[in-house]
Hints:
With 326 residues, this protein is α/β, with parallel strands linked by helices.
Amino acid sequence: MQESTSGAVRGKQGKQGVQRVAVVGTGVIGASWVAYFLAQGLDVSATDPMPGAEEKLRQAVARHWPSLEVLGLAPGASLDRLRFSAQLEEALADADFVQENGPEREDLKIDLFRRMDAVLPADVVLASSSSGLLMSKVQAACRHPGRVVLGHPFNPPHLIPLVEVIGGEQSSPEAVQAALDFYTAIGKKAIHVRKEVKGHIANRLQAALWREAFHLVEQGVASTEDIDTAIAYGPGLRWALMGPYLNLHMSGGEGGIQHMLDHLGPPIESWWADLGTPAITDALKARIRAGVEEQMAGKTSAAIAAERDQLLVQLLAAKGRAKVIP
């Protein structure tokens, strides 16, 4: 990352330096971000060119609000602090921080960031929610590329605390730190991804699991329901409390992580060597689709999402009371 050439960056002091957030793109991720920012007592200016975007956004925020009320609203939090404009430049006026959630197309992102960069003061951080694009390419057309960073949330952002912050080749250390400070100040678990890689950290870890989940179905080892049960009622329960390294450490007993590495290292390497590399063929798609449709019999996605969110709220509340587990 290059040294900053644009002076001080807003947000370096955390939330205090940001009072109005512009949310660009109000689909599933953008709407979730809007709800979260409002719940943190911030003013939010949202924009999306799609017809009916404002109505859909306000409906989504209203759906998310009860969960956020249970988790606890910040002083001054109000749905009335949301304003909407279909015009990008109008929505960006007076913004102290930008959270972009546009389509995952590199050409569109480059043009969108060029437009935002052209009208905003050079000290306003421009953060993208992109799940896979590299900021080095997205920032290329900006006059002030140093303030462009990635602020990738985990879905749904209004409930899941993780945010991955990554700078591109031209991002300034000040902008990266400002983003980290801001997200942390509003209650997120922000981590600094130190190198640009496709999929960042969390999606790469997910992709590794998905690969073997697809392989096991392809080979007829298990059904989609078996695999979901194995994760949801096995390691997934522990992973919700601690990550893979602390879990390994705890599994090592008194010897901790060193004992695990010494004694289970060879078996783990043998499992790695046996993992599959499936291709997502039409036949595999059909098998997975049939399995999931069987799992969904008598259920709706809306009902599952509602119950998922209730359980997430309860889990987050419990984790918030933890004294030792990070």
